[in-house]
């Protein structure tokens, strides 16, 4: 019913920038929150940034001042502008959305398929 599609990943040198985008589509009634998580090899998936509708964005400490999350509510999209990238930012980045499917009251969590971000010289 719902699909999250990420784009914008790739290979960049340290200090470079990437902009990730995620579009949610399907029978969506409303989106409560959207965010980005990442998972590096051998590590657990971790929150990168998340923004709740009507609220302010949250960032993990290691990306504060470097990453910026933004939402376009009309288009059901979320973006992650990543600047000053470091090798430790290398991971698969997953789009996340907490949303209501049309005709359903509960809020469910959906995930995109992931997009690879590699920061290497």
Strand element count:
11
Largest sheet: 7 strands, mixed
* Helical coverage, percent range: under 10%
As residue ranges, the low-confidence spans are none
Q: In words, what does this structure look like?
A:
The protein has 121 residues and is mostly beta strands. The protein is 0% helix and 59% strand. It contains no helices and eleven strands. Strand 4 and strand 5 form a beta hairpin.
Brief characterization of the structure:
This protein is mostly beta strands. The chain is built from no helices and eleven strands.
Helices and strands in order:
Blueprint: E1 2-7, E2 10-12, E3 18-26, E4 28-39, E5 46-52, E6 58-59, E7 67-72, E8 77-82, E9 91-101, E10 108-111, E11 115-119
Parallel strand pairs: 2-11
Antiparallel strand pairs: 1-3, 3-8, 4-5, 4-9, 5-6, 7-8, 9-10, 9-11
List keywords for this structure.
121 residues; mainly beta; 7-stranded mixed sheet; 4-stranded antiparallel sheet; 0% helix
């Amino acid at each position: 019913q719902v699909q999250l599609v990420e784009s914008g990943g790739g290979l960049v040198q340290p200090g470079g920038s990437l902009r990730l985008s995620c579009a949610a589509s399907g029978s969506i009634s409303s989106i409560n929150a959207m965010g980005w998580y990442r998972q590096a090899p051998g590590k657990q998936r971790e929150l990168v940034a998340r923004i709740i509708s009507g609220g302010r964005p949250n960032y993990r400490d290691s990306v504060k001042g470097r990453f910026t999350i933004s939402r376009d509510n009309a288009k059901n999209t979320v973006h992650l502008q990543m600047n000053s990238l470091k090798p430790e930012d290398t991971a698969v980045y997953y789009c996340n959305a907490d949303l209501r499917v049309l005709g359903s009251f509960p809020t469910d969590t959906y995930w995109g398929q992931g997009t690879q971000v590699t920061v290497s010289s």
